[in-house]
Write a structure and sequence with these properties.
This protein is about 30% helix and about 35% strand. The chain contains seven helices and ten strands. The protein has two domains: about 1-60, no CATH class; about 65-269, Nuclear Transport Factor 2, Chain: A, CATH 3.10.450.
Length: about 270
């Protein structure tokens, strides 16, 4: 919102002649009291002799398109940051607020509604499942009330595999389908790009040997994460997009369709 300030002079033409001796000619103005202090009379004289007496008018103008765009992008970024804070800190009631009612989540280990995702995430947290996220930069593209937001991120999961405590770090991007409904930006669909990962033993004095055939069966962008999650009993989806390739190009196409006002049913497959 912008403020415009205008100064206008007060018309003194009808105020008559003021002689500053206690008399006012040609008006109904009350004469100055005879017991006024000289300094007060000087103040009166300056007020009436001043050529301009400012009057300030304040007008409210609509937010410019550029200002609105900045506000929308900031609102979207706040939702992305809230997703990570609320989920990783087990703030489940607040976590609901980042999704629209028909929100949908797709990850290596889970594909389903946001409501179901919140439920299984909570159950896993209570069982001691350790998955944390860290965010990097974002790019947000907006078309009217829809947006696509890409955000650099890392996923860190710690668990035991082959009786050895390990930690997997996977780097990629959140690829979020946003919509503004009733003046609120929230997530309709969250997809991810999995770009590269690694597995480290937590205790450097130990070693772990992985099954090479199982490891090779997963896409290179998340093969260690998928290996760990498979050993934990999850059914891991094997065609998630990486940094490049047909799966990545297909996800970009789904994003373009979303911005063009089309359905995203196919983006949930």
């Amino acid at each position: 919102m912008s403020l415009l300030i205008r100064e206008d002079a007060i018309d003194l033409s009808n105020m008559g002649e003021h002689n500053f001796d206690g008399r006012t000619a040609g008006t109904n103005m009350t004469p100055l009291r005879s017991d006024y202090h000289p300094a007060m009379r000087e103040t009166e004289r300056r007020q009436f002799e001043s050529p301009r007496s400012p009057q300030v008018d304040v007008f409210c103008t609509a937010m410019s398109a550029e200002e609105k765009l900045r506000h929308d992008k900031a609102d979207i970024r706040e939702v992305i940051e809230n997703w990570v804070i609320f989920r990783d800190a087990a703030m489940w009631d607040q976590f609901k607020t980042v999704w629209h009612d028909d929100g949908y989540m797709m990850a290596t280990w889970f594909q389903g509604s946001a409501t179901e995702f919140i439920r299984v995430s909570r159950e896993g947290f209570e069982r001691g499942v350790s998955i944390l996220h860290f965010l990097g930069g974002s790019n947000v593209e907006i078309a009217t009330n829809r947006a696509i937001a890409q955000t650099k991120m890392t996923i860190t999961q710690r668990a035991s595999v082959h009786d050895t405590l390990v930690e997997v770090v996977c780097t990629g991007r959140f690829y979020d389908f946003f919509e503004k409904r009733n003046e609120k930006w929230a997530i309709v669909l969250r997809r991810l790009f999995y770009e590269k990962d690694r597995m480290d033993v937590v205790d450097p004095a130990t070693q772990v040997t992985l099954e090479p055939e199982l490891l090779a069966s997963f896409p290179v962008g998340y093969q260690h994460l998928a290996y760990l999650q498979t050993k934990l009993g999850f059914n891991v989806k094997k065609n998630m997009p990486g940094l490049r390739g047909p799966e990545a190009q297909a996800l970009y196409a789904h994003g373009a369709n979303w911005l063009a006002g089309r359905s995203i049913v196919d983006a949930k497959k």
